[in-house]
Design the sequence.
């Protein structure tokens, strides 16, 4: 019997979550390490990478959203023991990932400067940022295919291998960053472009390892890319889940873009502070995201197997675990904001803006964690629209207008309170959604 329907729930959630959490935290290292090293060049270089960061997160969000749709459909077929359809779903997931990579490559080649002109007129920042975006998007098939293969291993319960490919990719990036940025060991000094090259080499290496691991370790599934054959049914089933998931995960990236526009009216340093905060909070939020990524196939599998009791147990336990993780994150940001900012070569202006910002925003962490888990529960139960509504509320509909009004009519330092206000309100709405869903599951058990 598959461990998805037989292993004790707490142990299953931990065993599925931990490797994914580690792999996602490692993924977060890519841009953070880039930022730490380029901050040693100049504040302009840090600003250039900060402005490019939303493009990177949008790519990862699209890749993860597509993988969530593919993974949910795949886990459902595995729960039904329909291996023929599972193989077909696997193939379609790879095709769709490559298509997204082509779209981003075209964007990077044609629109890099246009995008950066929204935030700065500094020609040096635009030149550095454009080279960073072009390199990352042109080779984006690395991260798209890598994430797809991660989800294949996740859906089949082989999540431990995610750590291997993610760890290898991040290690390569960390080693190559100083070498290519500063020109060590006879290599040319490439600056910001060197950071981008190190990133894509790490992603391509992780992709190759993922392909090899699936071929060698996942015996129940078979990748058949040729001859090319698209099924409208499978594509639709993937996209019905994937599109709302893409939107949900991309909303955070688009929020960052619009937040940068709001903050640019105050100073370039305000943008850099928000970018630094966003990268630091990933180490807290990625832990919950990793858990929710594990929760989706657990719920989807047990929904296919009609084990509604296990769905409720997994959901309740995950909510408690998320609250605990976020509490630890809040304590870290409240006690050590200066030390966190110091990693990015902070000056007095960054400390003045950043220390209160980190302390105020971290108040929202627990409420945000609860909403994230509930959104994943709804998504796994094919209630993606409700999940999308909650995500739009917390990242766009309430947060951005409230930030703009507080910044413009009160002060920049007061604008950070938009985060706790928004997250607490949205968490209340999410808990109401979950109460209704849980009631329906209990009725099906009766």
Sequence:
């Amino acid at each position: 019997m598959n461990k998805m329907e037989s292993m004790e729930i707490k142990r299953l959630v931990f065993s599925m979550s931990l490797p994914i959490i580690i792999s996602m935290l490692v993924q977060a290292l890519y841009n953070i390490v880039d930022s730490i090293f380029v901050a040693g060049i100049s504040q302009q270089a840090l600003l250039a990478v900060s402005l490019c960061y939303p493009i990177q997160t949008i790519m990862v969000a699209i890749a993860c959203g597509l993988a969530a749709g593919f993974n949910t459909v795949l886990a459902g077929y595995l729960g039904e023991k329909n291996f023929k359809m599972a193989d077909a779903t696997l193939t379609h997931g790879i095709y769709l990932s490559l298509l997204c990579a082509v779209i981003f490559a075209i964007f990077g080649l044609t629109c890099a400067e246009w995008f950066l002109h929204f935030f700065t007129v500094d020609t040096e920042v635009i030149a550095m940022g454009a080279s960073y975006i072009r390199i990352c998007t042109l080779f984006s098939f690395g991260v798209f295919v890598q994430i797809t293969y991660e989800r294949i291993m996740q859906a089949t319960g082989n999540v431990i291998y995610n750590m291997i490919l993610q760890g290898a990719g991040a290690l390569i990036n960390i080693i190559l960053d100083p070498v290519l940025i500063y020109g060590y060991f006879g290599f040319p000094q490439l600056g910001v472009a060197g950071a981008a090259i190190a990133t894509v080499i790490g992603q391509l290496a992780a992709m190759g390892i993922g392909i090899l691991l699936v071929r060698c370790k996942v015996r129940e599934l078979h990748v058949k890319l040729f001859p090319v054959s698209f099924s409208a049914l499978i594509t639709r089933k993937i996209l019905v889940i994937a599109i709302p998931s893409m939107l949900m995960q991309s909303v955070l990236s688009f929020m960052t873009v619009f937040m940068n526009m709001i903050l640019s009216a105050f100073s370039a340093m305000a943008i850099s502070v928000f970018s630094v905060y966003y990268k630091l909070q990933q180490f807290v939020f990625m832990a919950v995201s990793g858990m929710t990524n594990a929760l989706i196939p657990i719920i989807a599998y047990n929904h296919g197997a009609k084990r509604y009791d296990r769905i409720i147990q997994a959901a309740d336990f995950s909510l408690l675990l998320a609250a605990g993780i976020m509490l630890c994150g809040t304590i870290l940001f409240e006690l050590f904001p200066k030390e966190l900012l110091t990693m990015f070569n902070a000056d007095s202006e960054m400390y003045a803006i950043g220390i209160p910002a980190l302390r105020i925003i971290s108040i929202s962490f627990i409420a945000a964690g609860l909403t994230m888990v509930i959104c994943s529960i709804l998504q796994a139960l094919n209630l993606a629209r409700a999940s999308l509504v909650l995500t739009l509320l917390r990242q766009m509909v309430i947060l951005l207008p409230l930030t703009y009004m507080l910044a413009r009519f009160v002060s920049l330092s007061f604008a950070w309170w938009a985060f706790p206000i928004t997250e607490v309100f949205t968490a209340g709405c999410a808990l109401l959604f979950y109460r209704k869903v849980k009631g329906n599951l209990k009725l099906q058990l009766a």
Summary: Residues 43-79 form the longest helix (37 residues).
